[in-house]
Amino acid sequence: xxxxxxxxxxxxxxxxxxxxxxxxxxxxxxxxxxxxxxxxxxxxxxxxxxxxxxxxxxxxxxxxxxxxxxxxxxxxxxxxxxxxxxxxxxxxxxxxxxxxxxxxxxxxxxxxxxxxxxxxxxxxxxxxxxxxxxxxxxxxxxxxxxxxxxxxxxxxxxxxxxxxx
Length: 165
Prior knowledge:
Elements: H1 2-17, E1 28-41, E2 57-68, E3 71-89, E4 94-105, E5 108-118, E6 125-135, E7 141-149, E8 156-164
Antiparallel strand pairs: 1-2, 1-8, 2-3, 3-4, 4-5, 5-6, 6-7, 7-8
């Protein structure tokens, strides 16, 4: 028991010595094309043509591509996420979801989390905070700006990362 406690104290002390700054040294802005590969409701009774209930969840996997001008470039990663409906009002076509998304990129991973409000007039763009990362993105902060492209039912979005050290 004493050895375990000493080991835990040593690990905590070592962690306190690790710098908390970001691995990036200056602000970065870059965009990727996000194409939904799989979007799966994981709540029974929540289907494509049904109004979700509060607590309903959906998991998704998206492919991330470079932009080559206005065309899709090479695949550079993937995004995996889980969204939970926290407010649903079908009378005014409005819903609020809480999503966590992990973007896997060549230099590391970026974690995004926050609330998204969908309404009849909310437009095709929303922003979510970047809450951290690993690899080259360790300790990063900032936000993403996601804009749906190709129409209301499109599975494509431009994801613009605004990262700060």
